[in-house]
From TrEMBL:
Its main location: membrane. It is a multi-pass membrane protein. It is found in: Cell membrane. One of its GO terms (molecular function) is fluoride channel activity. The lineage of its organism: Bacteria, Pseudomonadati, Pseudomonadota, Gammaproteobacteria, Pseudomonadales. This is Fluoride-specific ion channel FluC. HAMAP family: FluC. The chain crosses the membrane at residues 33-56, 68-86, 98-119. One of its GO terms (cellular component) is plasma membrane. The keyword Glycoprotein does not apply. Belongs to the fluoride channel Fluc/FEX (TC 1.A.43) family. It comes from Pseudomonas borbori.
């Protein structure tokens, strides 16, 4: 189990650094009309988690340390949106469409509400 923890920590460090580097590069080289850096890492993370998930389904012999290090660590450090997207897709694939749409609605609306509440607390 300790090997999995270290793999997740190492992957998380690399994913976080890639997020920072990607964001810095995009912000320095692209117009600032939109949250381009956040959008880019979210889309990249979703592409990578879809690929890795499919690969790991085809290759169950890939060690847990590598799977957890890449999915939970690296992609978790790069973006949690990719995990959210995969969770939603898995709900849809298992025939739980109402649950998937509820999960999306609660995540987005709940996240916005929690962010607003956190910001509001600073004004008290």
């Amino acid at each position: 189990m300790i090997a999995v923890v270290f793999a997740v920590a190492a992957g998380g460090t690399c994913g976080t650094l890639l997020r920072f580097a990607t964001g810095s590069w995009i912000n320095a080289n692209w117009p600032q009309y939109f949250y381009t850096a956040t959008l880019a890492v979210n889309i990249l993370g979703c592409l990578l988690i879809g690929y890795l998930y499919g690969l790991f389904l085809l290759r169950p012999d890939i060690p847990l340390e590598l799977r957890a290090g890449l999915i939970v660590g690296f992609l978790g450090g790069l973006t949690t949106f990719s995990s959210f997207s995969l969770d939603t897709l898995r709900l849809l694939e298992s025939g739980q469409a109402p649950m998937a749409f509820g999960y999306v609605a609660l995540s987005v609306l709940g996240g916005l509400l929690a962010t607003w509440a956190g910001l509001s607390f600073t004004k008290l």
